[in-house]
Amino acid sequence: MTDELCEHLRAVPEGPKPEGGCAQCTEQGDTWVHLRFCVTCGEVGCCNDSKNKHATRHAAATGHPVLRSKEPDENWAWCSIDDMLVVLEH
């Protein structure tokens, strides 16, 4: 990985994290390991360690490239297009 951020991670909004869990898992009666959310539309989905990988599936289906961790003590964003991570300052 280079020191340069991809175009998708240059201006990641650092606003509040959305409420709730993975609605698709809840509807299916499944659980998740960790939660991520789309910075474009705010949809919450389960992580890639979860059975359904809803956050990554959402990114692929919509073209919304950047996911943030919804976990309380984590403040990072991931670009699913460029496979790049950035740790956010706040």
Characterization of the model:
This protein is of the alpha+beta class and 90 residues long. The protein has one domain (23-87): Herpes Virus-1 (2-Layer Sandwich), CATH 3.30.40. It has two helices and five strands; from the N terminus they run H-E-E-H-E-E-E. It has helices spanning 23-28, 54-62, and strands at residues 35-38, 44-46, 66-69, 76-79, 84-87. A five-stranded antiparallel sheet has the order 2-1-3-4-5. Strand 4 and strand 5 (84-87) form a beta hairpin. The model has no long low-confidence stretch (mean pLDDT 93).
Write a short abstract of this structure.
The chain has 90 residues and is α+β, with helices and mostly antiparallel strands. The chain contains two helices and five strands, in the order αββαβββ.
Which secondary structure elements does this structure contain, and how are they paired or packed?
Layout: H1 23-28, E1 35-38, E2 44-46, H2 54-62, E3 66-69, E4 76-79, E5 84-87
Widest β-sheet, arrangement of strands: 2-1-3-4-5
Q: How would you state the average pLDDT, rounded?
A: 93
CATH top level class name: Alpha Beta
Poorly predicted ranges: none
**DSSP E strands, number:** 5
**Count of discrete alpha- or pi-helical segments spanning 4 or more residues:** 2
- Assign the CATH topology: Herpes Virus-1
Strand content: 15-25%
Order of helices and strands: HEEHEEE
For CATH, the homologous superfamily is named as: Zinc/RING finger domain, C3HC4 (zinc finger)
Specify the biggest β-sheet: 5 strands, antiparallel
Number of domains: 1
Q: Helices and strands: which structural class?
A: alpha+beta
Shape: globular
Name given to the CATH architecture: 2-Layer Sandwich
* First-to-last CA distance: 23 Å
Rg measurement, Å: 13 Å
> What is the share of helical residues?
10-25%
